[in-house]
Every structure is written in structure tokens, then in C-alpha cells.
Design a protein that fits this description.
Length: 235
């Protein structure tokens, strides 16, 4: 039995138009699979009054129209859908290749991370790019993937003072997570690399090249490759 999975969901009010549904207690692939499956089931069910469904690591927020439904009705729908989960189709995850330059100006916190972990910068890059990371959720800014599975040897705390501006494409780590900043925003994670890819392009049919449940693999590249790929992205 999964110790992180709740035996039954916990329902919490989230304002006058939100229902927060919690399925577990920690960052766990099985818990997140349950969250994503339930979010997809509810979206496909098209229940009256459901305005939006926002999946997260271990919970999901159901935004609803109180003129069309209420908390009790939503809970009944969710509990019914949960019983049907084994019979519902699940989308097949894809692996998305993300080229990353870990060198020089592209990883401004690399030396600090290396010092804190007792590793060399080359070892940090090698260890970080070795796993295939699952996307647990997308949030904070459009396209920001929260990735679990960061090796323990790279666990470092958040910056004591967040940056006011993080360059778009920055690859970062904090505690047991890693992620990518698609836009230039404030941020408090350690920056160890940068990708030349545009990860949020609202003018495209699919503005984000991945979704929760997909996998990301980081591929180390040189500064020369970074400039070449950045030019191709801008063309």
C-alpha cells in the first residue's frame, strides 16, 4: 500500500467557487497519477457547473459556478468517477528532449551548487542530466514544469534572497525539485543551466510542448550549440 496515498480524498473549500481535493501527502508518482487521472476524468465528464480543473502535485482545484452546482454535488461526482478510474483511458506520456548549456554565464549558480554539494560543476551537470524527470504539474508561470526525481546529491535549499529577474530558459533546482523558467520572471531557485528553446509560445496551436505526466530529459550542449539553437528558435 502506498503510504503517501490517502485512503479517501480530503475535500476542502477554496473560497466561494473552489473545491480543493487532496489525494496524498507528498511528492509521489502514484499520488500524482491519481490526481492527473481524476482531473482528466472530470474534464471529460463535463459535469454541469465545472469551470476549470487545475491539477497539482498531490491535489487538484475544481473551480465551479455556484449558480449551477455546489460542493455536495461535486463531491458525489468525484467519488463516482474515482470508482470508474480503472476503466478510463489514460494518455501515454511522451519524453521531451530539452537541450541545456550548463557552462559559464548560462549557469550562474553552478559554482555555488558545486560548493554546497561537494561536487564539481561537471559532476553537477552530469548528475542533473542523467534522470528522466516526470512533470508533476505546470504552474507558477505558463509552461513552468515542476519536475520530481532530482537526485539527492543535488538537493540544495532555495536562495535566501530571490532574484528579481531570471533569464527565460533558465534550468534551476531547489530542495528536491528541478524546473525551467519559460519566461523572465522573479525566482528563488539555483540556476545551473539554460535552454535556448522557447517553452511558451502563445502564437502556436500548442503553446507548451509538454503536459503533466510527460517526461523531460535534459541534454547537455556547448555554448556554441546554444547560440546555434537560439538562432533557429528566433528564425
Amino acid at each position: 500500500m502506498n503510504n503517501h496515498m490517502y485512503p479517501k480524498p480530503i475535500f476542502r473549500n477554496a473560497g466561494d467557487r473552489g473545491l480543493l481535493v487532496e489525494y496524498g501527502s507528498d511528492i509521489d508518482p502514484a499520488v500524482n497519477q491519481k490526481v492527473r487521472s481524476m482531473a482528466a476524468a472530470l474534464q471529460n465528464h463535463r459535469s454541469d457547473g465545472v469551470v476549470d480543473v487545475v491539477p497539482a502535485y498531490r491535489s487538484m482545484l475544481v473551480v465551479y459556478d455556484p449558480a449551477a452546482t455546489d460542493i455536495d454535488a461535486l463531491q458525489k461526482v468525484l467519488l463516482t468517477l474515482e470508482k470508474q478510474l480503472p476503466e478510463l483511458p489514460v494518455s501515454t506520456p511522451v519524453v521531451v528532449d530539452i537541450p541545456v548549456c550548463y557552462e559559464g554565464e548560462y549557469g550562474p549558480d553552478m559554482d555555488a551548487v558545486a560548493s554546497r554539494t561537494g561536487l564539481t560543476a561537471q559532476e553537477v551537470a552530469r548528475i542533473h542530466s542523467r534522470p528522466e524527470y516526470m512533470i508533476y504539474m505546470i504552474g507558477f508561470t505558463p509552461g513552468f514544469p515542476f519536475l520530481g526525481g532530482l537526485p539527492k546529491s543535488l538537493h540544495v535549499p532555495r536562495l535566501e534572497t530571490p532574484r528579481l529577474s531570471v533569464p527565460a530558459g533558465s534550468v534551476a533546482i531547489a530542495n528536491n525539485q528541478t524546473g525551467i523558467y519559460p519566461q523572465s520572471t522573479p525566482g528563488g531557485w539555483h540556476l545551473i543551466g539554460q535552454t535556448p528553446l522557447r517553452l511558451f509560445t502563445p502564437e502556436r496551436t500548442n503553446p507548451i510542448p509538454y503536459q503533466p505526466g510527460d517526461r523531460i530529459r535534459f541534454r547537455p550542449i556547448s555554448p556554441l550549440d546554444f547560440h546555434r539553437l537560439a538562432a533557429e528558435e528566433a528564425a
